[in-house]
Amino acid sequence: MDWDLAIKRNSKALKAIIEVLFALLGLDGTEAASRIPRSLHSAVLAVLRPAESAVRRLIVIAARGVVVKLAPSRPMPERAKPPAPQGKGGGAPRSPAFPLFDPRKRFKFARGPRGKRVMPRIRFIEYDPRVVALWPKPRPVVEPPPPPDGLASATRLHRRLQAVKLALDDLPRQARRLVRLQERRAAKPDLALDVKFKPPLRPGRPPGYRKKPIHEVDEILTACDWLACEAMKPDTS
């Protein structure tokens, strides 16, 4: 298996897709977006989710056989100064870090049938104003909020796109980051049973997977997922 060629082909295709998404938002990859139509937000997100999963699998492939040397951990000072606020008056904002681990699945458990709620029956033979004063007053009718303008915030969407772009530009660095993070977590036995410290790829279908492909990114994700599973197999040669 030519792993370098597989990484090169798939990363090139993903870079082209990310550039198209930036173009749809009217951005060049650096300036921040503000608000965009909800339909455009949903369309970009439908492509971004599988693209993130594909990039995450490329990082797993690139981390195959990578060895890093961990620096000794330094103790935290007793009174650490809080970090300076980013943005206005705090210097340039930090570049977004690409998440190296798949989001975990959320399982929905079926609830049993609910019984009828029994309400107490209270009857009064004669009217008593003292009894009426015990009941809470009805809440005033609140006017419905104004109709939405059809726009959605694109700030978080832009940062996710930027994180994917930065990861694709330097996959070897992301691979070393993944190996370093895994070794640090393996050195802490108290975290061994924690669910969120499992392997970077979750079992089953990857996030953003669609059974019926509707975009080029779906085929790339299927290929990258298969390659990542092959790369994670132990070397028996």
Number of strands: 2
Low-confidence stretches: none
Strand order of the biggest β-sheet = 1-2
Shape: elongated
Class based on secondary structure composition and strand pairing = mainly alpha
- β content, as a range? under 5%
**Treating each run of at least 4 consecutive H or I residues as one helix, how many helices?**
6
Q: Helical percent range?
A: 40-55%
Whole-angstrom Rg: 26 Å
Summed over residues and divided by their number, the pLDDT gives a mean of: 79
Rounded to the nearest angstrom, the distance between the terminal CA atoms is 13 Å
Taken in chain order, the helices and strands follow as HEHHEHHH
Can you summarize the main beta sheet? 2 strands, antiparallel
Assembly classification: single chain
Summarize, please.
The chain has 237 residues and is an all-alpha fold.
Layout of secondary structure:
Blueprint: H1 3-24, E1 35-37, H2 38-62, H3 129-132, E2 151-153, H4 155-169, H5 171-186, H6 216-231
Antiparallel strand pairs: 1-2
Helix pairs in contact: 1-2, 1-4, 1-6, 2-4, 2-5, 2-6
Written description of the protein model:
20% of the residues are buried. The chain has a domain at 3-69 and 93-103 and 151-231. The chain contains six helices and two strands. The protein has helices at 3-24, 38-62, 129-132, 155-169, 171-186, 216-231; strands at residues 35-37, 151-153. Helix 2 (38-62) runs parallel beside helix 4 and helix 2 (38-62) runs parallel beside helix 6 (216-231). The chain is elongated. The protein has a two-stranded antiparallel sheet.
